[in-house]
Amino acid sequence: MGSFAVLVLTPALWAAVLIAWLGPRDVHRFCITLSSLMLLTQRVTSLSLDICEGKVKAASRGIRERSSLSDHLCKALPYFSYLLFFPALLGGPLCSFQKFQARVQRSSNLCPRHSVWALSWRGLQILGLECLKVVLGKVVSAGAGLTDCGQLQCIRVMWSTAGLFKLTYYSCWILDDALLHAAGFGPGFGQSPGEEGYIPDADIWTLETTHRISLFTRKWNQSTARWLRRLVFQHGRAWPLLQTFAFSAWWHGLHPGQVFGFLCWALMVEADYLIHTFARSFIRSWPMQLLYRTLTWAHTQLIIAYIMLAVEARSLSSLWLLCNSYNSVFPLVYCILLFLLGKRKHTFN
């Protein structure tokens, strides 16, 4: 990416500095700036990858050496418009440059009636999620926390707190999706033949019903997951999965809880591949498959809850409380299975 790599390092550096020097009450004032920088790095790197892969022509191509400054600016204007597209800097799924350009060129094809129904449906979804969030928030605030919970009670505290974080994420993603839809960049707008369709960030049904951590990872913040896969995973030669999660922790700001959470997540995904590959060769009857899916679903949701609390921890003391609780048993089980099955696979090979 050359000089564009500076835009990747900037949000990570400033996030680490702000979190280290300011208190939690002050950091939120700069969140919108950091978030916009993070989303800008997505668009810059996505566009640079498109140019490197030949999907998009660089602005400098096709311009003569003696061209005026206005000619250069006219050629570069679509790229600046894409990078600084205001609704996308507030949030929402990552939109490719080709789709952005196609949608702008077809701006007269927007159907107002379709948009009203789509926005109304998203508004109802947000309302329902916010109501659930209020109810669950009262349950969490009325119960014990990780500081004073006892043994198995800590599992309920972790699950309910992570559920509160999930509802917040789902609500924000649907709101961002509605904003892009109102701007004319929703499903079916500006889609060229052969181009991949619209990818929403919140696939709530899959996220809440899957029994596989790897599938949860691909569906969680889906457009960002695909961007990370394209940017890091597909170019990584050694330990691409670990590189991807390490880069994600760096991109999010290198907070201790985020570093621990993302590296733990990488180990869980690696273990998930081995466990389910091993289980498929032994579990044949449907009652055993049903039992297996039920147990792995519960275990997956508990591990995700553990990772979420680690990532959202804003102090080392909170992270230590989580690691020192009974909740650490769930990722520890997967780590042990990763070691045993990895050793067995190596011996077999």
From TrEMBL:
It holds the Pfam family MBOAT. The gene is MBOAT4. Keywords: Acyltransferase, Endoplasmic reticulum, Membrane, Signal, Transferase, Transmembrane, Transmembrane helix. Its main location: endoplasmic reticulum. It is found in: Endoplasmic reticulum membrane. This is Ghrelin O-acyltransferase isoform X2. GO terms for molecular function: serine O-acyltransferase activity. The keyword Membrane applies. It is a multi-pass membrane protein. Residues 1-29 form the signal peptide. It comes from Zalophus californianus. One of its GO terms (biological process) is lipid modification. One of its GO terms (cellular component) is endoplasmic reticulum membrane. The chain crosses the membrane at residues 79-97, 290-311, 317-341. The keyword Iron-sulfur does not apply. InterPro entries: LPLAT_7/PORCN-like, MBOAT_fam.
